[in-house]
Amino acid sequence: MKDRRSRKYKQGGQRSGRAGQDSRKKQGAAVEGIGVRQAGQGTGSRSASKKVLTAPVQKNDQVELEIIGLTHDGEGVGRVEGFTLFVQGALPGETVRAHVLKVKKQYGYAKMIERLQNSPNRVDIEHPAHYYGGCQLQHLAYGEQLRWKRQHVVDVLERIGKFEVAQEDEGASEGLTLEEHDSFAGDHTSSSSDSEAAEKPEAELDGKHSIAEGTVISTQDSSRGVSIHDEADNTDEDKCEKSGYAIKVHPTIGMDNPWRYRNKSQMPIGADDKTGELIGGYYVKASHRIIDTDVSLIQHEMHDEAMRVVKQVVRKYGIIPYDEESHHGLLRHVIMRVGFRTKELMVVLVTNGDKLPYQTEIVNELVQALPNLKSICQNVNTKRTNVIMGDKTRVLWGEEYITDYIGDIEFKISARSFYQVNPVQTEVLYDKAVEYAGLTGEETVIDAYCGIGTISLFLAKKAKRVYGVEIVEEAIQDARRNAELNGIEHVEFAVGAAEVVIPQWKEQGIEADVIVVDPPRKGCDPALLDTMLAMRPERIVYVSCNPSTLARDLRILADGGYAVKEVQPVDMFPHTSHVECCVSLVRK
Ligand SMILES: C[S@@+](CC[C@H](N)C(=O)[O-])C[C@H]1O[C@@H](n2cnc3c(N)ncnc32)[C@H](O)[C@@H]1O
Fold first, then answer.
1. Going by DSSP bridges, is the β-strand pair 409-414/373-380 parallel, antiparallel, or unpaired?
2. Where is each TRAM domain found (predicted)?
3. CB-count burial class (<10 Å; 0-12, 13-18, 19+) for 141
4. CA 547 from chain center: how many Å?
5. d(CA 472, CA 175)
6. Where are the domains of the chain?
7. pLDDT tens digits, one per residue of 102-140
8. pTM for the model
9. Mean pLDDT, residues 303-310 taken together
10. For the complex shown, is ipTM > 0.90?
11. Residue whose CA is at the smallest distance from ligand 1 atom 26
12. Do residues 347 and 335 lie in contact, with contact meaning Cβ atoms separated by under 8 Å?
């Protein structure tokens, strides 16, 4: 029998043209041309439509391959006889030996066993939690992360949005040169996990869901590698004419210190497989196995201590960890929030049931051990779901919120309200949003998806009137309280879906000079985009945490009469594959 193991492969060389010059037709043809071997090929006995397609690798094969790109999830991409394999932890320019884990029709997954050739952009990571949680890019030098994020934005604008993008500026990202970023990042040999993924329902962001069944893989190589089409890549080529101008995509604005930047951690709780003891920390990538740890180098230091204390106290009182499979047990997650400026700490215990045994004792011990505690809450989530929080929250001790500042504006933040997790970069992002809004003091502004009114209050400093709309009721309560707290009277907030409330405002005769949108990952609702086009504001500012849905929505706005002027990527989530963008659109 033929030994299929330890076969050595080189890159298939199936590159198509430069990013942006592709077309759906070309991609389709290219996909057919790579990654599959046709059984019975050359026999002439089958019609083309009946050909059986077989991958050139099989599960459990060991292969050597060159890595030629990164997916939007930060996984290395290589080819074996033209067949695409995703290899977690591998970087472009590396040659690796890998064990094939899974083979699908057009692509497969492999686990890196050994690096035969290292990328010069690789940095050492010593912390064992490196491979867990959402820090997919920690092994890539920080300056390269910033370049990769910009290139990812460029790729989706070209591929999904069908936009022309201007050549990259020469030089470095704002504030710090890329070389300085790299040398800083290189000094950090230990690391951790957790990412923006913790902000979202896991089904949406968990690595194991990130490359959907049936995902099309394009052979289009940009300067950074290979593109994967995702759910937003549904643009009809025929409708997508070129814009007639080139969008400027600026270098990603990075952090001077890209560590310890998170103000919020959400740590899953479970039982140790062997001892049954309560553990908590991070999920191993693409699984629900928990690594027991208190430390993450991207979260605020106070969270490490809080997590250590919470686990110690709940273990002492015999609180039973939640078991996902049986849906039994009580404690599901520990959520911690800290005000970077105020150092106020909130701990939320997410439980599978209303009753918390030994509540008084647990609360007293936490208060004794954690001097900065301002709030202890219990959130009840009894559903079988990956969504972390349930609908019911009660305060066990202290206030129902903590306080923090962005710039000179004070915010009260309650347990369930959305609040940006990286306060340093949030200020950078919001300043950019205000700049793109181009306010003179005379404008009426709508802030759609306003959360606790953070952007609204920034905008209000320079606008005549601001209307904010948000779907979570507690967030709007926070927003109103925040406006009052800061003595800002010319803002008005409404609870509801932006796609329902804004059309009502239009009916009532409210006219906006500027509309700012900051939607969740799925992007803007089509009804909202229609309303925005009907309202015809002079400027639109689009803040987005998902470049794919951003590109899709920008195409609709561009076709509806807006020029997409500038895109500013901001690194809100260093060491993860996530990138935030602020976009300036102007009515043509
Ligand atoms: C990315 S966050 C932005 C929040 C805020 N702009 C900020 O910077 O803190 C998106 C917000 O949209 C809210 N949201 C989700 N779907 C919505 C909808 N259909 N209408 C209004 N708000 C929605 C979420 O609750 C969340 O607060």
1. unpaired
2. 56-114
3. buried
4. 10
5. 36
6. 56-122, 264-406, 422-587
7. 999 999 999 999 999 999 999 987 554 544 457 888 899
8. 0.79
9. 97
10. yes
11. 451
12. yes
Ligand 1: residue whose CA is nearest its atom 20: 497
| Residue 34 reports pLDDT greater than 80 | no
Integer Cα distance of 412 and 405 in angstroms: 9
* Domain 264-406 class, CATH top level: mainly beta
Q: To 10 degrees, what angle do helices 359-369 and 301-316 make?
A: 150
Q: Is 582 a catalytic residue?
A: no
Residue-wise DSSP of 438-500: T--S--EEEEES-TTTHHHHHHHTT-SEEEEEES-HHHHHHHHHHHHHTT--SEEEEES-HHH
Q: Give, using CA atoms, the residue closest to atom 7 of ligand 1.
A: 451
The domains spanning 264-406 and 422-587 adopt the same CATH topology: no
Question: Is residue 518 part of an annotated ligand binding site?
Answer: yes
Q: What is the mean pLDDT of residues 39-44?
A: 35
Q: Is the C-beta atom of 451 inside 6 A of ligand 1?
A: yes
Q: For residue 313, give the 3-state DSSP assignment.
A: helix
Q: Which of 524, 545, 581, 582 is catalytic?
A: 545
Please state the length of the chain.
588
427 is in an annotated binding site: no
Helix and strand tally (H, E) in the chain? 12, 28
Sign, CA dihedral 393-397-401-406, equals negative
Task: Give the distance (Å) from ligand 1 centre to CA of residue 21.
Answer: 34
For residue range 459-486, list pLDDT tens digits in order: 999 999 999 999 999 899 999 999 999 9
470 lines ligand 1 (CB under 6 A): yes
Annotation-wise, does 449 bind a ligand? yes
CATH number of 56-122: 2.40.50.140
User: What atom of ligand 1 comes closest to residue 450's alpha carbon?
Assistant: 6
For residues 366, 368, 371 and 375, what is the CA-based torsion angle, rounded to 10 degrees?
Answer: 40
What architecture is the 422-587 domain classified under in CATH? 3-Layer(aba) Sandwich (3.40)
